Amino acid sequence: MTLLVIAVVLALVCIGAPLYVIVGVTTASCLAAFTDLSTISKLQVLVQHMENLATKQEFLAIPLFVASGAIMTAGGIARRLVELMQALLGALPGGLAIAAVAACMFFAAISGSSPVTLIAVGSMMFPALVQNRYPENFSLGLITTAGSLGCLVPPSLSMLIYAISVSGAVSVDASDLFLAGLIPACLVAGLLSVYCVWQGRKVPGERPRFSLAEVKDKAKAGAWSLLLPILVLGGIYGGWYTPSQAGAVAVAYSLIVTIWIHRELTLKRAFVALVDAAELMGALLPIIVLAFGLNEFLALVDVQERLLAAVRAMNLSAAGFLLLVNIALVVLGALMDSVSATLIFAPMLAPVAYQVYGIDPIHFGVIFVVNMEIGYLAPPVATNLFVASAIFKKPFAQVARAVMPTLAITCLALLLIIYIPTISLGALNLRDGRPLYAAFPWAGKPAAPAVETAPEGPSLRSLTGKLIDELENDQPPPSDKPSP
Amino acid sequence: MSMGLVVFVDVVHRIFSRSPGRLATLLAGVLQHFGGDVTVAGLDATVAPGIILGVGFLTVYAALRTRAQASGRSLGRGALVLRAFVGTVLITVLVQGFVRLRPEGMVWAPYSALVTLLWVGLIGASMATYKGRHLALEMGEKLWPASLQPTIKRIALIVTAAFSLLIVLLGSISLADHFAAWRESPTSDLIPAVDWPKWVVFAVVPYAFAMIAIRLVGRALGLLPEPEPPEVPT
Question: Most buried in the list A131, A303, A390, A426, measured by CB within 10 Å?
Fold first, then answer.
């Protein structure tokens, strides 16, 4: 039966079926093959997850940030950011390249999406870099990699999806994850900037001189765009609103800035941008809800418990476990779309990391998201490589070769983030009044569960009954309170 | 857009109806830390509103000052200050009027936004099918020789349509259950806060997937045109 399910999934992959069909058919066939949820009416689990969307407030953050990103992108924010960064950093060795990295980072904070950042900033910065005699492959690789910083810079869709997907297994607040992602994002951007300086020293020609007047001028034009991440993050951490409500603030703010202050967006163009955002949501939503069905199945057949037992039996150290998980995630990221990989594997791996090794779910979340960032760049299923190949009109193989040095830099950053948890947890520790330093459990071996685990050996029948009961009950939406 | 704006208005209401306000609490904490003899209630009544008004005025002034002018000419400082003042007063009156006239706020806002999310997301899924924007592993299609690709594509369309029809069937069963529950007792089986019958809200599930299935079958049979490939994959 297992082989049959695998064959069905492989067949769907081979015919190029949409991801939501692959996830949905996998869920339906697993439910039919391995549980007693085999009758058609019991497969309603698939649909009930869609209906449950109407009561889950944490979901609101995703469409709202997608919408605000679409409005800002259509409103010409990228150009203002690029000009400001060029004025600020252009005079440094490799300044134009550093400006590209910084613009990508800030734009990612506004748009929340890697491919959108790559399209908006990359389409301006790649020609500028080549025109200023930076090597073509360096420019291509740098822009493609910096574009993927969107995964790490809050408010990031990847982080929101991670927080939502693991919410049934471990407690992760999206706002904590946002804060934890800030320093790792700066680390990746910093390492890329060092690479830019090193490359920039070899670039012939004069660098532009630093002009305070130009910086003031460009800052005036770009200030409202730069304020958005501050407004979003400041509001969340100041306790003014939750991440979902921050999405609504971002939508209202981006409309006011682009339509009323910058006057670059008409209502008609805003409507087109929002329709585009709705289509993007339409592409994401079925995958997300059907993946929840798959997670439900994995819970029904105790996959997590089995994984826990298997990891304990392997008797790996925490360092070895994380290394293994990361190799697996990089391979998965290269083979799968990042959203599906997060939805399917994060709820399985995060509780194991926490319960067996005591690895903080926030730290693990940041590691997961950096892996997904690498997944955006690692062929064959690398969204950003496809996007870069299309917008820069370069062969896919050339783009894949060009990202190798910057991909190696990102992998180096990943290793630092994994084994120095202070990088991700330091900001949270400071906020909560704990010591800044967070030690990595180098000598860590599989330990007793750190938190309460599911009662051992529940029967499939009882779990199934519980699932159906939950689905039939009208639960009030969970409160979406701001973090303290 | 309406989803975002409704939740935004709710957020504004929550912020300005909170008593004591967040700003007063923050200020009191800071001042008391440095030995200041202040109370949250005192700051909430005096200093905090002043700061909010001041920051509001400066924000409106900065927005007016940096606002792109249609005619290209900029306003004088006096005119800007006057407009900023009037703007701040208007916003304050609107916000305070709203908070005082509707002290209970907009409890329904997040619920209506979630219903909108369901509708927008699923109709968006149908539109994504129309424009060929659903995420797929493109390598699958490329495994086949060029001569076989149209057939493979047709098979993929039919399989996707079949799966969509399964969702239509499951959605219809669920819809019938919700309708029966609602007909039995019209005050039950409602979406909380907005009190819309669930069967009305969830009708979008079979509807959207039926649209997807029809489009895909139409394309597989050659009755509907193939979508234009997007300029860049999304």
Answer: A426
